[in-house]
Amino acid sequence: MPAAETSTIPGTAPAATGSAGFPPGFLWGAATAAYQIEGAAQEDGRTPSIWDTFSRTPGKVLGGDTGDVACDHYHRFRDDVRLMAELGLGAYRFSVSWPRVQPTGRGPAVQRGLDFYRALVDELLEHGITPMATLYHWDLPQDLETAFPSGSSAGGGWPERDTAERFAEYAGIVAGALGDRVELWSTLNEPWCSAFLGYGSGVHAPGRTDDVAALRAAHHLNLGHGLAAKALRAALPARAKIGIALNPSAVRPLTDSPEDRDAQRRIDALANRIFSGPLLKGAYPQDLIADTSHLTDWSFVRPEDLAVIKQPLDFLGINYYAPAVVSATDDPNAPRKDGHNSGSHSPWPGADKVAFHQAPGELTAMDWPVDPTGLTDLLLQYTAEAPGVPLFVTENGAAFEDRVGEDGRVHDPDRVRYLHSHLSAVHEAIRRGADVRGYFLWSLLDNFEWAYGYSKRFGAVYVDYETQARIPKSSARWYGQAAREGVLPPVE
Fold first, then answer.
1. Which stretches of the chain score pLDDT less than 50?
2. From 5, 43, 190, 362, the catalytic residue
3. Tens digit of each residue's pLDDT (9 = 90 or more) over 443-475
4. The pTM is what?
5. Which of the residues 5, 160, 395, 406 is marked catalytic?
6. Domains of the chain listed by start with CATH number
7. What residues contact residue 297 under an 8 Å CB cut-off, 6+ apart?
């Protein structure tokens, strides 16, 4: 049985809630990622990640933006932690920058890099905020991507087994530095994006467009999780809890026709079961292997890999933004992309005859539909698929066109409504039996939004990038009240 069946998450209680309130000990948090907020890209021994290289490549990031300065969190983290405390947040999910800690992805750590995270965690604990450390949020050391292992002609990175092994070494280093302070650990954030946007469609770093490389990357990310989980358990105290943050898709067919149902099956395999299969069941779905057999024979999966990947999970993180609506098509010009990317190459290998459709209803600034029912569906789905494993909503949020008003404040009623509806969806899942232990708003701060640069604002706190001033939006105040009271305030 999973280790989580007899474990508890620090600062939480098993799910049980009334009609209005959330469970006692429910964690109310916010999330960020290192490259999106830290800045200090060339300080204290940090070397380039794949996102430094990608963002400096003309045409890859809107406006030519980079994360060189971002929100300057590296120098302003104490102020940011104080702001979290003032808002009433009880938890903070941050990621560790691999190239800040281990610049080449190999060898000894840079203590100055580790010292930053030690100081950040100390500051969080001093303010009564529970830290959750994510080991990988897409910033692979560039040296690992440009390495050419034996037998590889395209490059290194996640398509290569060596990267998974290096990741486990890095996990042990970070655990050794922070294990006495941090109890909640997530190995990977959204491995689907790393594999299929980074190596499939090429709209994320490192920008490669190779179907087989994307499938190999997915497997080696899974393997990296398993190896890292083992390394963490070897280095951490017994009280530590280890999980992973996935971004499963709530895939819905356009119609009930057999053809559209089959399109749903194909995308479900590539978006969801390629990760949940080995993580939870110790096997890749046979239909996925059949769908992609014309691309690869999957010989990169060694027999012993699956047992390594299927490590006990103390929790499972669910990142959710919008559902996907799909149909079958023979139209060669049909949209092959979902709302998370806009590249010319499809991120869906083996799904050439699947089209994506815009779901109805209100849209965010990303043109993503606002549909909280998908979050309830996913929480209940993973409750059934991983019985006994507690869940966290490790990311959920929305970008809107936020502006500073004449009164010097930022009013974002659309985000308040979004948060209310999605937290209500979490509450509904709990009412129906899902063991959800916490919710992490994406994001604490406006930040570098990957290929969109600084053009999209997801933060509960507005950032003036010229002055680095922070202005809590009305949604931050609303969410802080929810965190303090454990119930959702009314929406104006």
1. 1-18, 150-153, 341
2. 190
3. 999 999 999 999 999 999 999 999 999 999 999
4. 0.95
5. 395
6. 3-323+363-485 (3.20.20.80)
7. none
